[in-house]
Design goal:
By secondary structure, the protein is an all-alpha fold. Helices cover 69% and strands 0% of the residues. The protein is globular, with a radius of gyration of 17 Å.
C-alpha cells in the first residue's frame, strides 16, 4: 500500500494539533485554574511560564495546521518533554495517581514521537513555507 497522498502528512499534523490547540485555548480561557494547577508543582514565575506555554501551544498549532515554519515542531517536542517530566512523573505519584500519570506520560511520548517525525520530515506537499515539496530525508 502506498501512502504518498499529501493528505496523509496533513491529517497527521491536524491530529497532533488537536491536543495543543485545545490545551492552549483552555489556558487562555481558564487562566486562574491553570495557575492554581501549576502551583501544585511549586514552579517559579507561574504566570510567565503559563504565558509561554499558551504561546507555544497556540502558535505551534497554527504552524502545524499550515505547515508554515514547521520546524517549530522541535520546540514543541522540547516543551512537551519538560511538561511530561514535570507534570506526569508517575514514579513520584501516589499509588492512586500513578496509573493515570503513567498513561499520560506514555501518551505524551507518542505525541513527542509524532512531533519529531514532523520536525525531521517536514510538513509534506500541503505545507506553506520553504520545506514544501522537499524530498524526504534518508532517501
Amino acid at each position: 500500500m502506498k501512502l504518498e497522498h499529501p493528505i496523509i502528512p496533513f491529517t497527521g499534523r491536524l491530529m497532533i494539533t488537536y491536543i495543543f490547540a485545545t490545551s492552549g485555548i483552555a489556558k487562555a480561557f481558564s487562566w486562574s485554574d491553570n495557575v492554581q494547577y501549576m502551583s501544585t508543582r511549586h514552579l517559579p514565575m507561574i504566570p510567565v511560564l503559563l504565558a509561554i506555554a499558551a504561546f507555544i501551544e497556540l502558535a505551534g498549532s497554527l504552524c502545524l495546521i499550515t505547515g508554515y515554519q514547521i520546524r517549530i515542531a522541535f520546540v514543541m517536542f522540547l516543551y512537551t518533554t519538560a511538561v511530561t517530566v514535570l507534570f506526569h512523573n508517575y514514579w513520584a505519584a501516589s499509588a492512586a495517581m500513578a496509573g493515570m500519570q503513567e498513561t499520560h506520560f506514555r501518551k505524551n511520548l507518542a505525541i513527542m514521537g509524532g512531533l519529531l517525525m514532523v520536525a525531521y520530515g517536514g510538513g509534506g506537499k500541503w505545507a506553506l513555507g520553504k520545506a514544501n515539496g522537499r524530498p524526504e530525508r534518508g532517501s
